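Lab notebook, bench 4. The sequencing result for the construct came back, and we need a structural model before the next group meeting so we can plan mutations. Quick request posted to the team channel:

Model the 3D structure of this chain.
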Amino acid sequence: MSVPLSSTSEQLPLAARLPEDRSQEPSEAFLQALADASAELESATPEEIIRWAVGMYGQKLTMATAFGPEGCLILSMLSQVDKGIYVFNLETGYQFQETLDTRDNIAAKYGITVDYQSHEQTVGEYEAEHGGPLYRTNPNQCCFDRKVKVLHRVTKGFNAWMSGIRRDQSPHRANTPIVGWDKKFKLVKISPLANWKKNDVWKRIVEEGVPYNPLHDKGYPSIGCWPCTKAVGLGEDERAGRWSGTAKTECGLHLLDTNGSDDS
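Done. Here's the predicted structure in token form:
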């Protein structure tokens, strides 16, 4: 059952009582409620976690997806719980055509609408302002402008968001809770597949015929924007093809820093 949006704060479960002023730190009681929920959900299935999230936050829950295998799998599960949850994709203007096609395939199979959300400037306008493609000279700023800022804008008005990250994807993600407070975006973050392994995800995708990005069959285990993504060799880390040749490993959406551009 979804939490009624008209409920007063006192009527809501503690894990749903977000700070009225998001600039303020959440109460210890609220953070503990999230930690308790996360611990309890550690042994739950992803479907059970999604049902918990929908029940706790209702239409104040949203989901961002880049149509990676995890995102596609979560969308297939979400379609069995609530197709009305607002789902969006950060359309940077640099996504592979195969990624955009995956969105259409997911929508056709599951009846879920995924909106594109973009920076206010087109790629042409943005590159003209910066004297050329910023991904070549300052990929951190490019990610911050065309992803992080957009997610900040879109999630205003929501209380929680779901992501498809897994703990074993990178050191930055190793301690990802199932449910936690997202300090960067000032809302609750739910990661239904946090404790799954890569093989768990692909096993379910194959078993259930979940549509996925065909680039995964061409040596691209992790897919972002086309200028900053390449195929990887056998045995390489699954995120080795992202920003190859640089120290950058994350776009900034899933890092805890809150200042300026993604400096990872």
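The helical segments are 28-41, 46-57, 69-78, 97-110, 123-129, 134-137, 139-155, 198-208.
Will bring this to the meeting.
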